[in-house]
Design a protein that fits this description.
The structure is a homodimer of 83-residue chains. Chain A is an alpha+beta fold and 83 residues long. Helices cover 34% and strands 41% of the residues of chain A. The first copy, chain A, has a single domain, classed as Mth169, Chain: A (2-Layer Sandwich), CATH 3.30.1280.10. The model of chain A has no long low-confidence stretch (mean pLDDT 96). Chains A and B meet through strand 1, helix 1, strand 2 and helix 2 of A and strand 1, helix 1, strand 2 and helix 2 of B. Chains A, B: Belongs to the PurS family.
Chain lengths: 83, 83
């Protein structure tokens, strides 16, 4: 079975997000002033070959913990769907 | 009213994704072989002050077109919710 995982890896809430601050200033320079806060992370799409949704879930969690997310500074969540 | 926009900015499908290729090799080196394809982009969260959902939608679309996405090589989509 094929699965598609849509993963978001974001800086943890307590951690300062300088990239987000820079983008907010950039938006203000473009006269877009209604943006109160900006947070920027990674969106990762994985195509997985697995025998079940539970196995696919385990593969994605393992990939996030081992490589895709730096758990000291980042947090991750994902949605999984059969394709 | 306050809105939260969850934006995904991804490389267009036809465009080669070297970052994705590198991560796939990295996963294989970690004995995670069930990953057929990897695509990597940005996940951006914007907190918006707007009078209506339609106005918030316009602000986010404008921000994406002007700054957050490079429309030559990237495509974007987003979900908007009142907070």
């Amino acid at each position: 079975m094929k699965f598609l995982a849509e993963i978001n890896v974001m800086p943890q809430k307590e951690i300062l997000d300088p990239q987000g601050k820079a983008v907010r200033i950039g938006l203000q320079n473009l006269d877009i002033h209604q943006v109160a806060d900006v947070r920027i992370g990674k969106h990762i799409q994985l195509q997985i070959e697995a025998n079940s949704e539970a196995e696919a879930n385990e593969i994605v969690t393992n990939a996030c913990k081992k490589l895709l997310a730096n758990l000291i500074m980042e947090e991750f969540d994902f949605v999984l769907k059969a394709i």
